[in-house]
Hints:
Elements: E1 7-10, H1 14-22, E2 28-32, E3 49-50, H2 59-69, H3 76-84, H4 86-95, E4 121-122, H5 129-143, E5 147-151, E6 153-161, E7 164-172, E8 177-181, E9 184-187, H6 208-215, E10 220-221, E11 226-233, H7 247-250, E12 254-257, H8 276-288, E13 292-295, H9 303-306, H10 308-316, E14 326-335, E15 338-340, E16 352-354, E17 359-360, H11 373-389, E18 404-407, H12 414-428, H13 434-445, H14 450-464
Parallel strand pairs: 1-2, 1-9, 2-5, 9-16, 15-17
Antiparallel strand pairs: 3-4, 6-7, 6-18, 7-8, 10-15, 11-14, 12-13, 13-14
Bound molecules: flavin-adenine dinucleotide (FAD).
Amino acid sequence: MSAAAPIIVVGGGIAGLATALAAAPAPVLLLTRAPGAKGVASAMAQGGIAAAIAEGDTPAAHAHDTCVAGSHHNDARIVELLTSSAGEAVQWLQAIGVAFDRHPDGRLQFGREGGHDRPRIVHAGGDATGARVMEALVAAARAAAHITRQAGVEVDGLLMRDGQVCGVCMTDAEGRRSVVHGRAVVLATGGIGGLFAQTSNPADADGSGLALAQAVGVRLRDLEFVQFHPTALALPGVHSLPLVTEALRGAGATLRDSLGRALMADVHPLGDLAPRDTVARRVFQACQDGGALLDASVVGADFPKRFPTVFHACMDHGIDPRVQPIPVTPAAHFHMGGIDVDADGRSSIAGLYAVGEVACNGVHGANRLASNSLLEGVVFGRRLGAILRGLPPPYDQPDANAAQIVLHPESLAEGDLIALRAVLMQTMGPLRCQAGLKEGRRACAAFNGWQATLAGALLDAATARRESLGAHFRVQE
Ligand SMILES: Cc1cc2nc3c(=O)[nH]c(=O)nc-3n(C[C@H](O)[C@H](O)[C@H](O)COP(=O)(O)OP(=O)(O)OC[C@H]3O[C@@H](n4cnc5c(N)ncnc54)[C@H](O)[C@@H]3O)c2cc1C
C-alpha cells in the first residue's frame, strides 16, 4: 500500500464530514450514497447544538444533565470529554461559516430544551440548524484539497486482511462493484430509524453501516436503547414522517385519543408536558387502540407564524392544524447503541473506526439528552480525524489476493422490509414485553437479509435486558 493510501470515510453527515476535515492533510476518500446533504439526518436537525458556553453555565452542569437523561448508564469520562469540548466545537463551526443566531447586541442566543437545567442550545436559522451546519460542512469539504468525494455509492462490504479491516467494497448506481484499499475505514453511517415502521429519520438511516460491522464480528453495544419521538405526523403508509414539535404542547396543545378524551391527564403530574418517553408510550398505546390526536387549535391564527414547519407539513397533507386535530404517532428517532468504540473511535477490530450515531462510546447512556448528537458528531469526529491524520499505512503494498471481502448478505426485498419494519415497531417500539420480543425474534428468522440479521441482534439485546432502563421500557408480565 502506498503512503498515499486514503483514510476511507463512509457517510457524509456531520460526523463523517467533521472526521474528514480534521484528518487534513492526510488523503481522505469520502463515500456517500447521495451528493451533498441529501438523505442525511444531520441536515434535518431542528433543535440545535448543546454547549455550556452561556455565562454561568459549566460543562459539569451539562454533563450532569446528560447523565441524568442517560439514567447514569453513560461513561462519565466520555461525557466530560463531550461537554468540555463543546465551546471549541461551536467556535470551529463558526470558523467554517455557521452563523449561529444572535441577539441584536451580538450575543449568542441560547434556547432551552427538555432535560437541560438552563438555556444551553445554540441554533442557526431558527429551526434550520442542521441544514445550516451541513451547508457549511459540505462547502468546506468541497474546498478541501485532501478530500476526494465519491457520491452515489453503496458501501456493502469490508476488506479484511490478517484480522484487520483494510478497505471497503462498494456498488455504484449502475450496479458496478469495486474495491478500494485504505489505511483506515471510518463508518459514519448514521442511525437505524429506517428499520422501524414509523421514523423521524430519512429512510437512508437504515443501519447498513452497523450491519457491515456486525458481519465482520465487531463488538456492538447497547443496541436495545432506541429513543422514540412521541409525536410525528401520522400519515398512513408513509415511513419517514415529519416531526410535530413538543413546543406545541408547551403552547397549550393537548393529546387526545380517538374519542377525544385527554390522553395524559392521569398518566403524569406534568400531563402533556411529561417526559418524552412517558408521552411516547401513552401515544403508542393510544395508536394501538384507535389513534392519537394532538389538538393544537389553541394556537389559532398565529399557527403559520409560530410553527411554520409543522403548519406546512400538515397543510401539505390536507390537515389545517388551526381547526383540525393533528394525527400523531411515536417514531424511531435516535439510536443510543451502536459499534462499541473508545474515546478515539476505535472499534474492537483493528483498522475499523466508527463515529456519530452508528457508534456507541457510552456518551448517551440509556437515553440521549436533547441536542447532544450534533455536538457528538463534531467533537468525536474532529478527535478521530486528528488521530487518523498521523496513522501510517498498515501494509507496504495492497494485496488483493491476501484480502478477504466480507459482504452484506442479500438486502431484503421491499415487501419483506416493510413487514420487518412493522415487526420491529410492534415488538421493539416504546413498549416491550418478553412475549413480544420472542415473537419478534421468531418473525425475524423468517426473513433472509442483512436487515433481519441486524434486527435479530437488536431484539436479542432488548430481550437480554429484562428491567426497564432509560428508553428501554419493559412491560412486566
Ligand atoms: C428530524 C430530526 C431532528 C433532529 N434534531 C436534532 C437536534 O436538534 N439536535 C441534535 O443534536 N440532534 C438532532 N437529531 C439527531 C441528529 O440529527 C443525528 O443523530 C446526527 O445528525 C447523526 O449524524 P451522523 O453523521 O452520525 O449520521 P447522518 O447525518 O445520518 O449521516 C449518515 C451518512 O451515511 C451515509 N450512508 C449510510 N449508509 C451508507 C452506506 N452503506 N454506503 C454509503 N453511505 C452510507 C448516508 O447517506 C449519510 O450520508 C435529529 C434527528 C432527526 C432525524
